[in-house]
Amino acid sequence: MVWQRDVDLVVPLWQGGDDVRIAAGASALAHLIPPSGNRLHVAVTDGPRTTIDGIRNLDAIHGTLKRLRNRLTRRDPHRTLTLGGDCLSDLVAVQHLAARHPDMVLYWVDAHTDLNTPTTSPSGRAHGMGLRALLGEGHPHLIGPNGPAMSTPAVTLVGSRDLDPAETHYVRHHGMAWVDTVEIIADPTRVTAPRPPGTPAYVHLDVDVCDPVDLPAVAVPTPDGPRADSVAEALAAIHAHHDIVGIGICEYAPVVEHDETRLTTLLSALDLTD
Ligand SMILES: [Mn+2]
Q1: How far apart are CA 250 and CA 232, in angstroms?
Q2: In this structure, are strands 200-206 and 243-250 parallel, antiparallel, or unpaired?
Q3: CA–centroid distance, residue 73 to ligand 1 (Å)
Q4: Is residue 262 in a domain?
């Protein structure tokens, strides 16, 4: 049974990571995943590659986020699938669904925590600021008009392993739930352990969570990750435990040579393929 949602958003946003290879990930995922209901291809704003307020390509990113916000406000979907694009591709979808499902929890499945702000970011790349913006801090263009979408107790980090010092401090200071590579390998089904069954959940899947041995086709390959099979087991456990209201798949760079079956293993675990 394929996971049912109201709308698929195809979002080839790449400016957040300043890596144009990521744009092609959106259409590649759209080929791999059969549509369910409406599928919207969202145009990405182009523009000068200038740094504003400490963020690369801020104007272009802001334009795309505004377009997404307008579409979601107009349609008001209950469940969404986002095919990115970089890690900002589903930022607006998470904000929208968090407002619609006040008890929604968020699984941030990513080698990175994306907890930087323009002040703490070493790179100025906004794709490393998404989760912090969802928690209400950072640039107003990323946070959006409605303030914090999530609170730290509602977030579980899965597979995060490459943190900047300020991100490590934030995670520890807030005591965020964090399932690391060792724990995923030991028992992928434990990923949902503290969460009540049946609660609405959003899965943000940056495919760089997998060890690059399995999936090198990403913007930021990060060693020492779990193998794709273990990640798939963790995703299946989340899917079995929760009412999935949203999924976003990000940071796929299909131009890099890779074994596509590793990716489809992840998609099958979330019931996105036939
Ligand atoms: Mn990442």
Answers
A1: 15
A2: parallel
A3: 27
A4: yes
Q: Is residue 123 part of a domain?
A: yes
Ligand 1 centroid, distance to 220 Cα (angstroms): 6
Boundaries of domain holding 91: 7-269
| Overall pTM > 0.85 | yes
**pLDDT at residue 117, rounded to an integer:** 97
- As for how many domains the chain has, the answer is 1
Measured in Å, how far apart are the chain's first and last C-alpha atoms?
7
Could you tell me if residue 238 is inside a domain? Answer: yes
Residues within 5 A (CB) of ion ligand 1: 110-112, 206, 208
Cα–ligand 1 centroid distance for 127 (angstroms): 8
Query: Ligand 1 mean position to 208 CA, how many Å?
Result: 5
| pLDDT at res. 218 | 98
Question: Are 219 and 21 in contact, with CB atoms under 8 Å apart?
Answer: yes
Q: What is the CA(159)–ligand 1 centre distance, in A?
A: 10
C-alpha to C-alpha distance for 228 and 232, rounded to whole angstroms: 6
CATH number (domain holding residue 206): 3.40.800.10
For residue 30, is it within any domain?
yes
| 84-115 residue pLDDT tens | 999 999 999 999 999 999 999 999 999 999 99
Instruction: Quote the ligand 1 centre to 146 CA distance (angstroms).
Output: 25
pLDDT in tens, 11-51: 999 999 999 999 999 999 999 999 988 999 999 988 888 99
